[in-house]
Amino acid sequence: MPAPLLILCPMRSFSSVVCAMIGQHPQAYGLPEVNLFIADNVGELLRIHAPRPHGMHGLLRTLAQLENGEQTDESVKAARAWLEARKDWTTKQVFDHILAAVEPLVAVDKTPRTVLRPECLERAYAIYPDANFLHLTRHPRSTGKSLISNLKRNAEWGGTFSADRVDPQGIWLKAHTNITQFAATLPEGQCLRIKGEDLLSDPALYLPQIAEWLGLDPGAEAIEAMLHPEQSPYACYGPEEAKFGNDPEFLEKPAFRASRVREPALAGALDWAPDREFDKPTVKLSRELGYA
Amino acid sequence: MLERARFTEIGRDGIGNPRSLVAQSMGYFDGALFLGVTHPSGDGPEDAARILRYDPDASTWEVVYESPLVEADENAAVHDVYRGESSRKLGRGQEKGGLVPRYRGFRGITQLANGHGEPLLFASTLSHWGSQLLVSRDGRHFEEACEPGLGDPNVLSFRATLGFRDKLFIAPVGTVREGVMDRNFGDVARLFVSDDPMSRQWHDAMEPGFGDPTNLSVFAIAAFDDHVYAGTGNPERGFELWKTRAQGQPPYQWKRVLTRGAWRYNVNETTASMTAFNGALYVGSGLPGLGYDKAHDVGPAAAELIRVWPDDSWDLLVGASRFTPDGLKIPASLRGPGYDDADNSAMWAMAPYDSVLYVGTHHCKAFHDALGGRDSIGGGFQLWASADGEDWDAVTMDGFGDVFATGVRTLLPTPAGLFLGTSTHREMQRLWSARTRRPAQKSGTGLSVWLGR
Question: What whole-number distance in Å separates Cα of residue B36 and Cα of residue A118?
Fold first, then answer.
């Protein structure tokens, strides 16, 4: 089985559209958020997601699609039963099961929760030491604004977290610090970084490079396929039993619309906390990621 | 390739002054090596900068210039921004009114023929009262050739100097202002040119900062493909590389070749060194300080090596793989930043010699070991060699056996061989000894000069 590509980024970093784009390469298979690296086994995974059922939607949709060829309430229920019967399976066994199902395609995972805890990143590496890692970035101001905006819709997918309680800057800094520290432990070339703004502003320039790095066909036909993330089976709302698994805004409008993605300024008051500016560590890391 | 055994130490322990720690500049003039040595501080007369002349035939050194002394004032003792405001002042040993060297180092030496074809040797000083350009016709007598700092007494040094056709280019680097010294940056990058330096007429060769105020200095300049190339230092966005044919009246028309630290952003903060080799320009990056620019909060990061072709395309030779507007860049050597060594903070000097390119590094491990009070001190500069820029062999990985030789500060190819000057910081022993309460490891101090042939 080919080792997967794991996209590393915090939430609100264009990961849904980027994962779907790369996953539309004829030699790749883009997954929704399967969240498998946040636990050691299925039982633990189910416990973690018990209070937040939407966290399982990506995995349920994946299993439904791969096992039954369709995402319906029935196939999702069957997927849930499949998991309930395998609580003693490791998450590696589940991911291996998915990799075997999509073989010979390269599975592409993007699970923002993975990057919030170093042990989750280490688990991912321990399970797939040959995986490639794509560090996907977005400007901290854009990320923060998007996070606040997204959390205001939290109730729509059963979330309870209030936008007032979140520190977007802290999340951005923690996630990217975790990723950069993790990436520094990898052999040269195993983790490459890309600014989401660059990729979405000029996909014709960057998608062939990503394909080349992964050893996939960088030809025009393959790149054209990557420009159609809406073709992904996960680029729409799922059945009632598992509606999400990706960014709701992506699920509503999955087609890629080419346009220049602007980068805001680092300096100046925070949009969500006008009495503050970015802290020094955020400015430092932002500049090192190319936001200056 | 010059292997380790073919290098001979021709000068050591500061060559007559153990406080001379850095072999900071070299030139070859009239069949002899000229070495400008630098002291980390200007405490007193013992820290006077010197120019040393080495006769390769007689294997002898002589001092041909020594800095004059001046009365100490508030600029004599300064805080170094790379050590922080809380650090002790450099030059702390000198009472106000005492004598200190006007120049505590030489940061550049170059040669240029004047309008009559007469060869002239220029040396740029490192001074807390405005860098000076010295000139000599015979290599024995030097005189001042410009106003301090070209009129700006805050200019610490002219790091990069280049004779190109009949013009001399010099780039101010560093400032001393209100008791604070920044060794590497000024308010904005500038580059000056003169087609008759003896006339003291200098002109801006470029728009300040190349139009970008975040370009804080021109760090390195080199001649290649009938152009002058200028590489900047930019702590916010990463270095830029520009080129010009230097035709017409200055300021010249420049074209940007690389930007954003060749898309590695600001951890590629400066162009530490550049040289032409086999039809390409080689550019080495670097971070000031000990692999972390404390003053601008950049890094830590190891350095990269990049090859630029005349058509402005470029290859990553040693460094971090990345996606760029110029395509996917994978290091051709398959070696990551710092030749896979995180302590190689700068590709500090490079030179071609006998169809082989040599790159010498600044290596931080000895500093970190000493300051951290670790069990032992390791490190020492590395010297790498390659015939094609892609396959590299290490000539030495341990400063030719001296872990306190932390950097190759100068490399100069000459008919007499390849000269290599070190930055040697054996004073680290005292720190380490104090922190670990163990005896110092090795005696002696001061820079070394090696000759490979």
Answer: 49
Identify residue B358 by its one-letter amino acid code: Y
B453 in A contact zone (CB under 8 Å): no
pLDDT over 80 at B330, yes or no? yes
Strand pairing class (B241-244; B255-258): antiparallel
Domains of chain B and any CATH numbers: 4-452 (2.130.10.10)
- Residues A283 and A261: their CA atoms lie apart, in Å, by 20
Judged by CB atoms closer than 8 Å, whether chains meet at A188 and B236 is answered as no
Cis peptide before B300 (omega within 30 of 0): yes
Distance between CA atoms of residues B216 and B83, nearest Å:
19
pLDDT tens-digit map of A146-191:
999 888 877 776 666 676 778 999 999 999 999 999 999 999 999 9
Backbone dihedral angles phi then psi of residue B283, each to the nearest 5 degrees? -125, 125
pTM higher than 0.90 = yes
DSSP string, B332-349: TTSB-HHHH-TTEEEEEE
Distance between CA atoms of residues A30 and A65, nearest Å: 12
Q: Which of A194, A198, A290 is closest, CB to CB, to B265?
A: A290
Q: Cis peptide leading into A104, omega within 30 of 0?
A: yes
- Say yes or no: ipTM exceeds 0.90: yes
Secondary structure (3-state) at B448: coil
**Other residues' Cβ atoms within 10 Å of the Cβ of residue B224:** 19
Strand duo A5-8 + A106-110: pairing: parallel
* Domains of chain A by start residue, with CATH: 5-261 (3.40.50.300)
Q: Which amino acid is at A174?
A: K
Touching check for B322 and chain A: CB below 8 Å? yes
Judged by CB atoms closer than 8 Å, whether chains meet at A292 and B214 is answered as yes
Question: CB–CB of A292 and B267 under 8 A?
Answer: no
What's the gap in Å between the CA of A269 and the closest CA on chain B? 19
Instruction: Identify all chain A residues contacting B263, using CB atoms and an 8 Å cutoff.
Output: 290
Minimal Cα distance from B267: which residue of A? A288
